[in-house]
Write a structure and sequence with these properties.
By secondary structure, the chain is an alpha/beta fold. It has helices spanning 9-20, 38-50, 64-71, 88-91, 112-122, 144-155, 175-178, 191-197, 205-211, 216-224, 227-242, 248-255, 260-278, 293-309, 316-329, and strands at 27-31, 77-80, 132-136, 161-167, 182-185. Strand 3, helix 6 (144-155) and strand 4 form a beta-alpha-beta unit.
Length: 335
């Protein structure tokens, strides 16, 4: 079987070769930027491991294991996620049942109770005698207590258990957890492969790929959020702010209506383009009130804080205002 995406061949060969040699590590950590297909890779791996009559490295697609995995009801495949409704990474996974309880309030973390329940289920026998799979999507969402509980499971794994961890922010995982996993690094593909994925995506494809940092699946998501319109709104809004023709209060109210992921990508894209212009790396599109490198760096720090603070719905507008004030305070000057 080939890897699910063309740029994942080396990672697939590493895993399939280890399995063939009977050396498959009990914990695999798929790490890399968003939008490069880590969840697709783990989904394909699960399908292969749970298939009862695989054809080489290919799941048959017909057996009980394949049907239940595709339907999200395989009893030996457990997915932990803080909130399956608001986590795009889980939405990309093919329907596997999650421990998240829909009646509870959505959370941004995987808590210790989820990990303890996972441990109880993994210590029971496999329903069909094969692998028991535990997916953490994403493992970055583990809080401290949950990470400690998972560490105990990784140190003394139940029989026939394979842990599959996904991470977009590897540094946020405790070193003790990382050290007990085999790391599979994923990166953005070559431009030709990325363009091939977006070949039928219309005139905004290049813009989406640029704002997605070269990650084609993330670019597809941005196109679905009308990234072209968001990019124009952010660009014109910041130009007006720098020209003292708009203020943070008005812009923040307007931007609250924009899709969050597209807004994040557009803000980072604007900052990256502005920094290139400020240091002379690119030309064109210079505004009359182009901010200095120092102000752009301050804006960058505020942008990092904004992404952290806006997780709380009550402070999102305030976080946007705080983000914009450093640029507005120096409106009309280039210092």
């Amino acid at each position: 079987m080939s890897a699910p995406l063309p740029w994942q061949t080396s990672q697939w060969e590493a895993v399939s070769g280890a399995r063939a040699a009977g050396r498959l590590h009990h914990a695999l950590l798929a790490a890399g930027p968003p939008g490069v297909g880590k969840a697709d890779f783990l989904a394909a791996l699960c399908a292969w491991l749970l298939c009862e009559t695989p054809r080489g490295e290919e799941p048959c697609g017909e057996c009980r294991g394949c049907r239940q995995h595709a339907a999200g009801s395989h009893p030996d495949c457990i997915v932990l996620s803080p909130d399956y409704q608001n986590r795009p990474v889980l939405g990309a996974y093919p329907g596997q049942r999650c421990q998240y309880e829909p009646r509870k309030k959505p959370s941004s973390v995987i808590n210790v109770d989820q990990v303890r329940e996972l441990g109880e289920r993994l210590h029971a026998s496999a329903h069909y005698g094969g692998f028991k799979l535990a997916l953490l999507l994403p493992a970055d969402a583990l809080n401290t207590a949950a990470a400690n509980a998972l560490l105990k499971l990784l140190e003394e794994p139940p029989d026939n258990t394979l842990f599959l961890l996904l991470s977009q922010r590897l540094a946020h995982l405790p070193a003790t957890v990382r050290s007990r996993c085999q790391l599979l690094r994923f990166s953005t593909p070559p431009l030709a492969q990325a363009h091939a994925v977006l070949s039928r995506s219309g005139p905004e494809a290049d813009l989406a790929l640029d704002l997605a940092g070269g990650a084609p699946l993330r670019a597809q998501g941005l196109l679905g959020q009308d990234i072209g319109a968001v990019w124009k709104a952010v660009g014109s809004g910041l130009d007006a702010l720098l020209g003292d023709k708009a203020d943070p209060l008005r812009l923040s109210r307007e931007w609250l209506k924009l899709p969050q992921e597209a807004l994040d990508a557009a803000l980072y894209g604007w900052l990256r383009h502005a920094l290139r212009r400020a240091v002379g790396a690119t030309s064109g599109d210079a505004t009359a009130h182009a901010p200095s490198v120092a102000r752009l760096r301050t804006f960058g720090h505020e942008l990092d804080d904004f992404l952290r603070l806006r997780e709380h719905p009550l402070v999102k507008e305030l976080a946007l205002q705080r983000l914009l004030y450093p640029l507005w305070a120096g409106a009309g000057s280039a210092t």
